[in-house]
Amino acid sequence: MGLWELFVTASLPVLNVLLVTAVGSISATNHVGILTENARKHLNNVVFYVFNPALNAVNLAQTITLERMLLLWFMPVNLFLNFVIGSALAWAIIHIFKAPSRIRAVIFASCSAGNVGNLLLILVPAMCKERGSPFGAPDICSKFGLSFASLSLAIGTILQWSYVFNIVRVTSSYAQDKTATTDSVSKVMFAEEAISLFPEDCRDAMVSTRGCSTSVYPLNNAPLLLYKNEESSTASKVPMSSSKISRFLKFFCGVIDLKKLFAPATVGVIFGFTIGVIPQLKKAIIGETAPLRAIQESATLLGNGTIPSLILIMGGNLVKGMHSSGVKMSIIIGIIVIRYLALPLLGIGIVRLAIHLGMVHPDPLYRFILLLQYAVPPAMNITSMIQMFEAGEGELSVIFLWSYAVASAALTLWSTLFLWLVS
């Protein structure tokens, strides 16, 4: 197949995404006012809790078997390397351009977490429908492409809410600690002054003393307890082993957001895996003659709403970047170079080495998705993390605007090269 045919095959799906993204952006402007911020939040909730899990479950259930699942073992490794290399390059950008501490979490998240799920769900089926596609029959290609993209989405979600989440948490808390030092000192001084107002034998909060005042002084919107009741006395007698377990569980829940880790999309993947690898369940639900085929048909109907909704939301969210500022152009260029030059080149080397060592089975569609995972723009999920830690939402909007504007050209060129490599 000629290079021009591959370029057309790669560019048309990106063009389709751009057109629908433009519709979403126009709908989100103040002049139109259809996709307002609240409307996007509600639509995003429907996609997050209903459409996406249904799409993941039905596509994996149709295509995954135990044997095929064992053949896909390299995808988690590939994505983990992608995230680690991206964060290492982000560290280099921060130190080269001396990025301020308030946006370091944004830089780390933008470079390490790529849109390895939602964007693949959009692009891969569209490429399968093109006549110049090297992936065989369009219907079979779309079915397996969606299953690979769903698996990529699930693994990417787990990495985002475990690995990237903790990078954002640590870097954002470092920035907040520097700005909150003065406030913390003043609060401690206030607490010491409040305690000094009481008799000396009443100052120890861990000792219950009769005759002590039960008054409280407000400290950071919480009462300063100057006495101890019977319940707290009992609590102090808890065995050390229980205390250690409790501290470990609190630490674990703080380090990993389990609620986000097992997102509905991941749950949908688990259901799809379960149905796909158990032949009895698969025969009962999947297929035109299956007795419970209504479940499959309903899930397919819901899943069909995922792709257009995601593109509209993405287009609407990009409008926020037009009204924000505060990021050096050198940092934006550095992030773009990492996402669209350094990571794809390193990804080609990693995937080709894995192929040479026999770690990747010879499916051109699977190899194409492994390569494409390195060339996507930043993941939309990092918006939630940045908002959670208040670590530079305006700056992230600007980075998203530029990243997704450049993505149209970068994805087309890299997709053309990737198609040539796997065909």
UniProtKB/TrEMBL annotation:
Its main location: endoplasmic reticulum. Pfam families: Mem_trans. It is a multi-pass membrane protein. GO terms for biological process: auxin-activated signaling pathway; endoplasmic reticulum to cytosol auxin transport. It is found in: Endoplasmic reticulum membrane. One of its GO terms (cellular component) is endoplasmic reticulum membrane. Keywords: Auxin signaling pathway, Membrane, Transmembrane, Transmembrane helix, Transport. InterPro entries: Mem_transp_PIN-like, PILS1/3/4/5/7. The keyword Transport applies. The chain crosses the membrane at residues 6-26, 46-64, 70-93, 105-124, 144-168, 261-281, 331-353, 365-386, 398-422. It comes from the Eukaryota. Belongs to the auxin efflux carrier (TC 2.A.69.2) family. Involved in cellular auxin homeostasis by regulating auxin metabolism. Regulates intracellular auxin accumulation at the endoplasmic reticulum and thus auxin availability for nuclear auxin signaling. This is Uncharacterized protein. It comes from Dioscorea zingiberensis. The lineage of its organism: Eukaryota, Viridiplantae, Streptophyta, Embryophyta, Tracheophyta.
